[in-house]
């Protein structure tokens, strides 16, 4: 198989591994004795979706070890199982699911069955109500577990972790609520004022950190503004609408000039900062910190200590979020690449530093790469009439 | 006295990777030997945790000092004496102590480091739209890429192939992310109601695995415990803070007595003697480029708006001229005022977007599945004035990402158009060939 195919196989394997990882969670070992006996009878029926197996309490950890062994065997066996045809089923693995773990399990099952391995009984054989106590390996093993779906709500964190976690949480909360005492604030501010009087006399209006932060804010403004402007270029039926549009446009004008003014200030600040710059700094390259928070946050130091959460309300939202993050990353990279390619390819063409014979092809390739993102080709037509 | 306790608490509140012995600060105060070297290293470790990037070797004091000086300049530290300290780290521990104290305040160093190093027990992701650390990692990549000399010929098809591969990787990455989303969502959904911390509500992948195999997570528990101790040290520090700042003032007093005022004047002469080498400095260069691009964009917008407004205003005046009385009767002025207010509100939204946002935190956040109903009480059943959690909503973040996406897309488009223009020019130079664009 070509390197590309091997790569694709590898990716598919990885996706499968992940699905199996979740499966492993489903193939949960009977951890706490207290939970086990209760679940034994409860988990008898296999639900129509997902994998559900009866738990064999007597075997305890021995079974779980062999389960894992069985599963591990399945995993290591699955690699040679995958064939070209299996690649077509890749779609089913990554498609959004409808119910529970059905899709990934089903897809996994299909791929395993493709090789007709004995361990492919994960799921199917669970139809049997009473899993016979036959040999664990080699036979049709029905790993005994309970689905995460069924029991997930009743899981409990182990005590040592929970203790450490809750103590930790409370400590964070106390720190967050902790106010700087008036004495401390006074003493601190006094010191800071004094030390700042010893700074170089005309300090630029913005520190380099502030300049970068301001630019970060401004960088999306032209795009936003142009969207607003676009919205107002349409024709307006009513007088009110026209008036509104006019006012909006004038407001946008104000915003634009404010931003331009800000940019000038920032440019001046850059130049004055350059004069102060320690002359060794050139070697360090970009000093930009990894996401340094803006100055505003220093006043609100404790705000940073709250628990940082990102709440999503649906599966679709989560997917959109990830997709967009990736898209933004990609665009950053594309832009960087575009700039580099422009700097390297265009001079070659402009100065004609290439073998004559390949002029047309080179031009076409460069055009495709630089103007179409490598996706579409221009057509080059020989100018016959020149003869 | 309270000072050793304060300094002790301060040291224990710093992260383990950059935790000095309390003695280091004391020695720095009295300019003891070796104090400067240790302090440079301390500052390096602290600032590196904020700035990221590759860490230099521990004996590479030269580069470490360069970095610290750059970082201090970056944050706006203006004491010239510090920048003049020798690069072998042999002197100046009191200056460094001052710089350290200034950073404590300026960057909220303790709080920032605590937040950045927070023990992760959840499924974490970042929400800021900052450019990834691609640029930093690219420095390492130049070693992998073969160097081509000027005589070497590179086939452009190799470039095309590489580009294709890159696209493929992006697509696979996307597929894997989507897969990951599915799995995350499942786990969050299935474990809803299990977590005793009600602000979270459900387990993360880590916690679910923890339930399965608690023995694997002993280190996590230890990390939580040591972080708790660090937090308690922070609380101690907050109690004893005033003593520390008073102590720092005595340092300033000493230095004022000893220092020579004429030195600072030399600094000015020196500094302004340096030419404005914006071209040689990559930082200034890229910022200036950025500013120029934004300016050009905005100026084009300004011109467009100018034309549009003039045109529209003329048209408006025309329309209104003849109908003034009629409009008065219809109560138009009142309507006009209402329209003014609504336009102002709309534009306020815009200025809000154009202003720096204080609560847009960078850094990692824990993903939590929450239905749209707001959680009415905090996880611990107390009523607090401020939320104990800083919860960003995915919908909000998606909106911001879309703004960023539009802006980047626009930039890419502009770059491509520039290429088109230049290539059109080149096409005219090609004999006998006409280019038909797709």
From TrEMBL, chain A:
Low complexity compositional bias: what residue ranges? 40-54
* Pfam families xrefs: DUF4693
| Highest taxon of the lineage | Eukaryota
Q: Which InterPro entries match?
A: DUF4693
Q: Could you tell me where the Polar residues compositional bias lies?
A: 76-95
- Please give the residue ranges the record annotates as the region Disordered: 31-101, 118-138
Protein name listed in UniProt: TEDC2 protein
Biological source species? Caloenas nicobarica (Nicobar pigeon)
From TrEMBL, chain B:
Kindly state which keywords UniProt assigns to this record, in alphabetical order: Coiled coil
Please verify whether the record's keywords include Coiled coil: yes
Q: Which InterPro entries match?
A: TEDC1, TEDC1_dom
Q: Where is the Tubulin epsilon and delta complex protein domain?
A: 76-253
Which spans are transmembrane here? Answer: none
Write out the coiled-coil annotation as residue ranges.
284-311
Q: What is this protein called?
A: TEDC1 protein
What species was this sequence derived from?
Caloenas nicobarica
